[in-house]
Amino acid sequence: MTTLLEIQEVTVDFDGFKALNNLNFSMKTGELRVVIGPNGAGKTTFLDVITGRVQPSTGRVNFKGKNLAKKSSEHQIVNLGIGRKFQTPRVFTNLTVTENLALSLKRAKGVFKVLFNPLSKENLTRIENILERVGLASKALFPAGLLSHGEKQSLEIGMLIAQDPDLLLLDEPVAGLTDRETERTAALLKDLNQDHSIIVIEHDMAFVREIASTVSVLHQGSLLCEGSVQEVQNDPKVIEVYLGYPEGAIHA
Ligand code: ADP
Ligand code: MG
Q: How, if at all, do strands 167-171 and 82-85 pair?
């Protein structure tokens, strides 16, 4: 497997406060990587650096061998094959589930062209496949505003898949979901991992165990340790960082 993303000695400085501090991180194509760490560890900033929202003061971000730092706008980075899902769903509540997906398929074409032209057979089939995959086939014609919180999260994951990114970034995708929805999301991510590399930030350790992939622990803007869920949970450095939190409260 080849290296997909490599972050080399990246520092992000907010007026003297280092949200990321000489961070090194690397993942290979095809991986499903979980990132955890206490509040304020720099997890969201880590995603911001990958997507070009925040520019590092030093260091490099290489994606598919290309240096992203200081070069690319957020929009260009999307075109390079990186898709991001934010913590709160960002769907168009007045549009149907299908229309939301149609917009993501053809974002470049503009809202009116997409909504007032019939979908090609090929795009319709793609949307049907995505609906099936994220479990929303029965809600295809519902306005997105009528979906439950969990269904909106699934729709937004569907909207990301519609853009067919090489790398999917998800910030706390199961926050606020029921246990059943959390299980379904874990299964969905494992399914999506068959054709996308994924970084997921999550604090629900049951979910992290379910995904059972490599876990990277961030602390004070640096990589504290990396390994299997079990290795990470038994690592004295990790235990120390989370000391003071009640048992089971290891969170992202
Ligand atoms: P996490 O997602 O792990 O909780 P963040 O990446 O959101 O952490 O934040 C890391 C640290 O950087 C926090 O202490 C936060 O207050 C600080 N921070 C984040 N964004 C900014 C900003 N734009 N300006 C100043 N400080 C920031
Ligand atoms: Mg965060």
A: parallel
> What range does the domain containing 139 cover?
92-146
Of 34, 45, 48, the one to substitute when testing ligand 1's pocket (max ligand atoms within 8 A of C-beta) is 45
Q: Is the pLDDT of residue 208 over 60?
A: yes
Give residue 201 CA to ligand 2 midpoint distance, Å.
8
The SS3 call for residue 207 is helix
Residue nearest to atom 25 of ligand 1 (CA): 14
β-partners of residue 33 are 199
Contacts of 230 (CB under 8 A, 6+ apart): none
Q: Specify the pTM.
A: 0.90
My answer on whether 12 and 123 are in the same domain is no
> Model confidence over 157-181: pLDDT tens digits?
999 999 889 999 999 999 889 999 9
Q: What percentage of residues in the chain have a pLDDT greater than 70? A: 90
